[in-house]
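Comment thread on ticket #2218

A.B. wrote:
> Attaching the input chain for the structure job we discussed in standup.
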Amino acid sequence: MKRRDFLASAAALSLFVSDAWAAKKQAKPGTTKASASSKPKANAGKPAKKGASHRGKLSYKPQEPVAHTAEDPVIERPPQGTSASRLPPVKAPEPPSEWRTFEITTTVNLKNRSGASKLWLPLPLNQDTLFQRTLGHTWTGNQANASMRRLPDGDLEVFYCEWPDSSEARLQLTTLVTTADRHFDVTKRTVAPEREDILRRNLQASKLIPNDGLAFQLGERILGRIKDPVAQAKAIYEWVVDNTIYDPSLPGCGTGDVRRQLIQGQYGGRSADINGLFVAICRAVGIPARCVYGMRTGSSRLFRSLGLSSDDATRGHHVRAEFYVPGYGWIPVDPSDVRRAISMEVLSDRDSKLISLKKILFGVWEMNWIAFNLGTDVALPGKGTVMPFLLMPQLESSGSRSDSELQYSIRTRQVVV
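C.D. wrote:
> Ran it. Output below, let me know if you need it in another format.
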């Protein structure tokens, strides 16, 4: 090749490379290179060099339909267009402006008994919330030792004391708790996400609250084609209100045995039974939910039967429930108190007051009540047996495993701090 022909070819090649580089820089972001498979592979059949990496195109699979089960909950892959898939920016919650403070005094007297005794008393929530804060505890008595103990998961705190000789054992525990009415606002979705381990825990079954089988089948029938988590919980809440019976003759807050209700097909009982049923169905369809164990501390502005009529709160124990939706946080409900009002106030299902109460108690807790704990399948420190939940004082004496002889009283009054 002549020298001038060589120089002309080199110049043309330089212009071609420059034009190609400029075109590459002007290309829109997001354009992809041609697949390497469209070109002949020069090194086909040869082993890859050490340290070499392969960059293939990313492939995106369409989102699979949500399976409404406790193993595959709706919170992880929410259906598009539901409240859980349109999460807003997180904002600091605004604390309530109106608070009421209650003084709760528990008095225990053990007489005509022999041997050592152990006593466990449930304490109010150990963490401050936007609806409840514990201000302090004081106690007096002749116990050998006393302390406050918290379970490892943080869901429950108890007052524990012992008497080597319980023939004249006595104790008085006084607690100050301040509360504010709790409201769920459907227009505000600004709550920070809950911890994943807490959500997982509140999707799991407990000894008395199943999350599969009959609970899942019942949940599927109730929900039908409803996809939005808030609407799903509302459908479950309304079904529980419409299909359960409140039985005031049962002791305490009921047994909380939801499994037996599902097997027998007879739904109802007291607060632990009715609100436990709501929790079981929610968990079965993938909505985290939990019972909240507590006690009434004052009169009610809604219905007389939903509060105390005096300062005696010894039989004022009551279980409530809540469920979780991303962006909204934990939403309070109480289907049991709707059924209680029907039973105790002798109302018909079509009474206008009852219809209003049914709407109110989906998203509202009137805080004439304090929350003790969230614990289920509770193993108390120093006690050999596991309890489904802790709501009442527990006594254990040497030679006896029964607390049926325990005599105690609980008094409550509103105070100004």
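A.B. wrote:
> Thanks. Noting for the ticket: The CA atoms of residues 126 and 157 lie 7 Å apart.
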